[in-house]
Design goal:
The protein is of the alpha/beta class and about 230 residues long. It is about 30% helix and about 20% strand. The mean pLDDT is about 95.
């Protein structure tokens, strides 16, 4: 199995320097160049979902980088491939549980709702970050699920602009906050089966060299931490 899956819809992994850094560091990368695909930004119709699933590697690496938040619906598609019961931990500035705007089409803003309704193996969802949601893993949550399987999805817009530059409104968590929470999840109490990471700003959407530098540094730090602790 490869170390990491990188799905590239907008060119951010290259522009941030993250993809070249991965390759230069000797990481084993499953890379999918989907920049020319149409009809996949923010919304993903059934035909595009089938196309994406057909082009995902088998087996899926446990660590997955999925471009900007416009493509956070990738979490629904990949988590939906799980074969055993699991819990979802979502770190995000938005709950991503909106009603679909276009007749049930999978979207970056409604994928959690879709996953709840379409995946009988999903046991529950812990959302960290949005208003009216916890800002950390609640006390007792891990112990109550000791030994059980957990899928983690991180949107970097949960962090402030010192650590991430994204194309959506952002929260105030620091990179240290995020890694501390990841550390709790990866401490061995639960079985983390996969971690996916999204949240970026593309050159096409106005990313400056400073935006790209910050996102690239955060990508490298997150990858190094997850590669070390995701066993």
């Amino acid at each position: 199995m490869k170390d990491i899956l990188v799905t590239d819809f907008s060119g951010t992994a290259e522009a941030e320097g993250f993809l070249p850094w991965l390759r230069a560091s000797g990481a084993s990368v499953e890379y999918r160049d989907w920049k020319e695909w149409e009809g996949v930004c923010c919304y993903c119709d059934p035909e595009s979902q089938e196309k994406i699933l057909a082009h995902l590697p088998e087996p899926l690496p446990r660590l997955r980088w999925t471009d900007s938040g416009d493509y956070h619906y990738m979490s629904c598609l990949m988590a939906g491939e799980e074969k055993e019961p699991f819990h979802l931990v979502l770190m995000d500035h938005h709950p991503d549980n909106q009603e679909p705007a276009f007749g049930g089409v999978l979207s970056c803003g409604g994928w959690v709702k879709t996953l709840r309704e379409s995946c009988p193996l999903l046991r529950d969802v812990l959302t960290i970050g949005p208003e009216d949601c916890p800002d950390d893993i609640p006390e007792g949550w891990l112990e109550e699920r000791r030994g059980e399987r957990v899928y983690v999805s991180l949107d970097r817009d949960v962090m402030g602009r010192e650590w991430a530059r994204t194309d959506w409104s952002q929260g105030e968590h620091s990179l240290e906050d995020v890694m501390r929470m990841l550390g709790k999840l990866l401490s061995g109490v639960v079985q983390v089966v996969a971690v996916d990471v999204c949240g970026a700003l593309s050159v096409e959407k106005g990313a400056s060299p400073e935006d790209l530098r910050i996102n690239g540094e955060t990508s490298r730090e997150l990858y190094a931490y997850l590669k070390k602790h995701l066993k």
